[in-house]
Design a protein that fits this description.
This protein has 77 residues and is mainly alpha-helical. It has four helices and two strands; from the N terminus they run E-E-H-H-H-H. It has one domain (2-65): Arc Repressor Mutant, subunit A, CATH 1.10.10. Helix content is 66%, strand content 10%.
């Protein structure tokens, strides 16, 4: 189940935001099963996050871009 964690959509029962799951799958090019193993969550949770992403892509892409900008500011990259 995906829920709002304040302003951010997150996976219930985890500390993972949807954008974190999407970034893990998309940036690594990993299959959902491999991402689930890496994140130590059931494959169904990864699938749920990816379905949410497909339905709310602009919102999640904005979260990813925002977090990348913050990381760049802090690392000087």
């Amino acid at each position: 189940m995906v829920r709002s964690a304040g302003p951010r959509p997150a996976l219930v029962g985890t500390r993972l935001d949807v954008w974190m799951v999407v970034e893990t799958v998309e940036d690594s090019g990993a299959a959902e099963e491999d991402a689930a193993a890496y994140l130590e969550i059931p494959h169904e949770r990864v699938s749920m996050a990816m379905r949410y992403y497909r339905d709310h892509q602009a919102e999640i892409d904005a979260w990813i871009a925002s977090n990348q900008a913050i990381a760049e500011r802090h690392t000087g990259v």
